[in-house]
Amino acid sequence: MSTNRSLREAAAVASRLCAVCGMCCDGTMFQLVRMQAGDSPAELIKLGMRIRRKGVELHMEQPCAGLRERCCTIYNSRPTRCRAFYCQQLLLVEDHSLSEAEAKAKIERTRCLSERVRALIGQTGYREDGAPLQEQFDRITSLPVDPTLEPEQVEVRRELEKTMQELKTIL
Asked: What are phi and psi of 60, to 5 degrees?
């Protein structure tokens, strides 16, 4: 098989898997993407990205403002780190350790856990503010629950912590 054909096939698999996933951009996996030499924060800001300074470094905030229905709307202008990122599922499919169908099944299971965490966060009364999933979880779990005043929240919190741990283990 030619190298060009192998590259085209790998790109096609990546495209299909990314289209059912999007977790590297939706705030599930990452909170920030560090800008690299050659990235243009000014251009990314024009495209609607949220850029912030952390120390001396610039970062693009997650969830990515360019993500729409699991598709990148800034694909040709995306930052260097986004261009270089290959998730574990893509790597396993490329080295034939996992079939594309198995990778899709794992992605679906992970997405279900992510959605369950989001639903549980909603049950706590926390209002979605566009923050990454881990940040929302940290805010909620940093507040104590008084079982005498909020008995229903005890089980919600327990389920949230258990589900988030399961999600972290998979990620």
From this structure: -95, 130
For 49-82, the pLDDT digits (tens) are: 999 999 999 999 999 999 999 999 999 999 999 9
Find out whether 136 and 120 touch, Cβ atoms under 8 Å. Answer: no
**Angle between helices 100-123 and 151-170 in degrees, nearest 10:** 160
Instruction: Check if the beta carbon of residue 70 is closer than 8 Å to that of residue 21.
Output: yes
Residues of the chain with pLDDT under 50: none
Task: Answer yes or no: are the C-beta atoms of 120 and 160 closer than 8 Å.
Answer: yes
Contact 137, 123 (CB under 8 A): no
The predicted pLDDT at position 3 comes to: 72
Query: Quick one: CA torsion of 108, 109, 111, 116, rounded to 10 degrees?
Result: 140
User: Which residue in this structure is represented by tokens 């990515």?
Assistant: 64
- CA–CA dist 105, 93 (Å, integer): 13
